Amino acid sequence: MKQKALQSVQYIVLLALGITLSWLFFRTLDLNEMRATISTGNFSWFYMVMLVSVMVYIFRTLRWQMLIRAVGYEASFANAFSALSISYFVNFAVPRLGEVTRCLSLKKQHNIPFMQLLGTVIIERVVDVVSLLLVLLLTLLLQFSVIIEFVKENVVTPFYEGVILKIQNGNQTILIGAITVMGLAALLFFYFRRYIRERSPRLVLQFVQGLKDGLTSIGKLERKGLFIGYTALIWICYFLMTYFWFFVFKETSVLGWGACLTILSIGSIGRSVPIQGGGMGAYHFLVQQVCLLYGLGGLMGKTLATLIHAGQTFFTFAMGLVGLIIFFVGYWRKKEVVISKHTPNPSQEGN
User: pLDDT under 70 in the chain at which residues?
Assistant: First the structure.
């Protein structure tokens, strides 16, 4: 009961955070101006974005099949593709639940042990995190001045001016607020310390075991170079999914690969935040701030961030629907085969 209560609280808090960030992003935005701006766009590039997005799903499915094969099982491309599509759809509404849904849906089709599938998904997540860190490092090396300016404007300066400077000037409200937050954090820690102490070792062991199984599966891969190649292609497609949006508007077409790389890196952090709606609010804010650093005005930056997120949202829902159709068609066919095997043949009965 306590675990379910914690999960419910986490879900509500994250949803409230996403709604708040979205409200802060859109409250100063003139929607009529945004509509007028959008009407000037060349949305033939949207089809290119969708095409590259499909390629991401294909490369991810092929990569996942390699991991499944490495642990001694086989899964058809259609069923693995379906499970992957459904998982992204579920993650959009309930972050992190998609991984479980992916394993359960494929287990239903191929009867592969759940924990084996979960191990492959965990190693996929590890590979994704490592890949993101490498992309962030590459961005830092190639766009160092922009990243430093981003951190200064969005982290250092707001914290200094909004907290430190006000406390130094004797603002009692900020001081009381800071003490209250720290006090609440301490109370929550002491209240849940027994739960943390009891659950943490088991969760850590489960994670380590899953990571060990995942690493073992990579060691068993027959074509490790192909696995790395699929991973590289996935991130190249992510890059193009952002880059093609630049050509929708004349104002954004001047942005180069450096801006695209920075938006990809910072935006990926926003999407990684476990907020419902694909990091709604967080993604919009971060991308818009990056656009400002590259000289893109507030309205155009917000429009670009909104369109990228809206396009990906549309695609996630569409592919989720496709995944569900593939799943149920496959499930019904499998059920019909089972029924036909257990149904007596009338001609044989007469004999």
Answer: 1-11, 154-175, 178, 188-220, 335-351
The per-residue DSSP string of 80-120 comes to HHHHHHHHHHHHHHSTTHHHHHHHHHHHHHH---HHHHHHH
Answer yes or no: is 33 within a domain. Answer: no
Give the separation between CA 236 and CA 230, rounded to whole angstroms. 10
344 found inside a domain: no
Pairwise CA distance, residues 171 & 166, whole Å = 5
Residue 213, pLDDT score? 59
CB count, 10 Å around CB of 41? 18
CA distances from 224 to 116, 169, 343 (A): 19, 59, 46
User: Is 182 among the domain residues?
Assistant: no
pLDDT per residue over 230-258, tens digit each? Answer: 999 999 999 999 999 999 998 888 888 98
Residue 110 is encoded by which pair of tokens? 């191929």
Domain that holds residue 83: 2-22+45-145+192-333
Nearest to 248 by CA among 55, 39, 51: 39
| Residues sharing a CB contact under 8 Å with residue 271, sequence separation 6 or more, in sequence order | 278, 279, 283
Q: What is the pLDDT of residue 243?
A: 94
> What angle do the packed helices 77-93 and 45-70 form, to 10 degrees?
110
Instruction: Tell me the two tokens of residue 261.
Output: 């790389």
Exposed/middle/buried for 103, CB within 10 Å: 0-12, 13-18, 19+? buried
Report the pLDDT value the prediction gives residue 178, as an integer from 0 to 100: 67
Rounded to 5 degrees, what are φ and ψ at 273? Answer: -65, 125
The amino acid present at 44, given as its one-letter code, is: S
Residues 203, 206, 212, 214, CA torsion sign: negative
Number of domains in the chain: 1
- Residue 147: the pLDDT is 76
Q: What is the pLDDT of residue 246?
A: 92
Q: How far is CA 188 from the centre of its chain?
A: 28
Closest alpha carbon to 138 in 242, 262, 253: 262
